[in-house]
Amino acid sequence: xxxxxxxxxxxxxxxxxxxxxxxxxxxxxxxxxxxxxxxxxxxxxxxxxxxxxxxxxxxxxxxxxxxxxxxxxxxxxxxxxxxxxxxxxxxxxxxxxxxxxxxxxxxxxxxxxxxxxxxxxxxxxxxxxxxxxxxxxxxxxxxxxxxxxxxxxxxxxxxxxxxxxxxxxxxxxxxxxxxxxxxxxxxxxxxxxxxxxxxxxxxxxxxxxxxxxxxxxxxxxxxxxxxxxxxxxxxxxxxxxxxxxxxxxxxxxxxxxxxxxxxxxxxxxxxxxxxxxxxxxxxxxxxxxxxxxxxxxxxxxxxxxxxxxxxxxxxxxxxxxxxxxxxxxxxxxxxxxxxxxxxxxxxxxxxxxxxxxxxxxxxxxxxxxxxxxxxxxxxxxxx
Length: 383
Known about the structure:
Blueprint: H1 8-25, H2 29-35, H3 40-48, H4 68-80, H5 88-102, H6 105-117, E1 122-125, E2 141-144, E3 148-159, E4 166-172, E5 182-188, E6 194-199, E7 210-221, E8 225-226, H7 232-268, E9 270-271, E10 274-275, H8 280-308, H9 317-341, H10 352-359, H11 370-382
Parallel strand pairs: 1-4
Antiparallel strand pairs: 2-3, 3-7, 4-5, 5-8, 6-7, 9-10
Helix pairs in contact: 1-4, 4-7, 5-6, 5-7, 7-8, 7-9, 8-9, 9-10, 9-11
C-alpha cells in the first residue's frame, strides 16, 4: 500500500536528512562507536542543517513548524541508517516540548537559540538506581533556600548524559507530596556539585553516551524551575504520548528496514544448491514479517497523522502506549528472526542485522516498558 502520510515537502525534507547522514554521520559512525560518544561537531552540523528545534519558534532559531511528520521523517531515516547514537529525536521530540511549552520568555531567550544551533545538547534525568517507571520512588531532593534550590541525589541511564549542557532533573520539592510533590529543575553544565559518572557500557547503541549523574548540594537558581512548582507529574504525563510515538516510529522503521535487508539476503544466499528464498520455511518467515509490518505501519501512520493534526488535541496516551508496545515488540521479533535467517553471518558484528539486534533491544524498555504500556491500556479498559 502506498503511504498517504507525507507531502512533497516532507519528502524534500527526507532528502535533506539523507544527505546529512551521508556527509556528517555515516563517515564517522564507526569511530563514534569505538569512542562511546558522538562528536560535538555533529550536533553543530545538525544545527546548521536545520535539523534541531524543528518545532521551536523562528525567533529563537528554530524551524517554527510543529508538524510532527517532520520529526517522524527524521526518526525513520536515522533508524534506516542504523545511527541512533546522534540522539536528535531525544533532543527534539522528548526534551523540546518541555522547553517550548513550559519555559518562561526569559528561559526561552536563554536556552532555545543554543538548543537549535547544537551548542546546547540536552538530557532529561528521571531514572534513578532505585526508581524507573515509578515516580513515587524518586529520592532526588531539592530544598527551598529562598532565591535558589539545593539539589541532592543521583540519576542513572541518562541518554546524552556525558555531552549534555542542559539537564532537566526531576526532583522532590515537597517530600510529603509523593508523585505530586515533584518539580522539574534545569541543571546547567558547570554548576558546582554537578558531576557525571562513567559513560555506561551498553550492549548496543555504543556511540549514544549514557551516564550516571550526581548532584551534591547543587545550587539551582529559582529562575531554573521549569513549569509549575510540584507540577512535574502532570508535565511528564503530558509529554509521554509524543515520546512513545517517536519510539514507535523508530520501531516500525527498524523492522521494515531489517525485513528489506533480509529479503535481499535470502534471495542471494544459497544453501543446498539453491537460494534460501526457495525454501518454504524462509518464504513463510518473510511472509509473516511482511504482513505484521504492513499492519503495524498502518496503525503507526494513523497515530502520526492524529498527533500531527493541528485541529486536534494530539495522540491519545492509550493509543500511544499501544503503538509503542506493538511496534517495539515487533521490531524485537523481526530482528531476532532476521538474524536467524542470516545464519552465522547474522552473529557477526559487521553485518547490519547484528547491530540492529543489539541497538534495537532497548526499544521495549525506555520510554516505559512493554509491561507498563499494557498496564496503561488495561487500566483504560477495565478501570
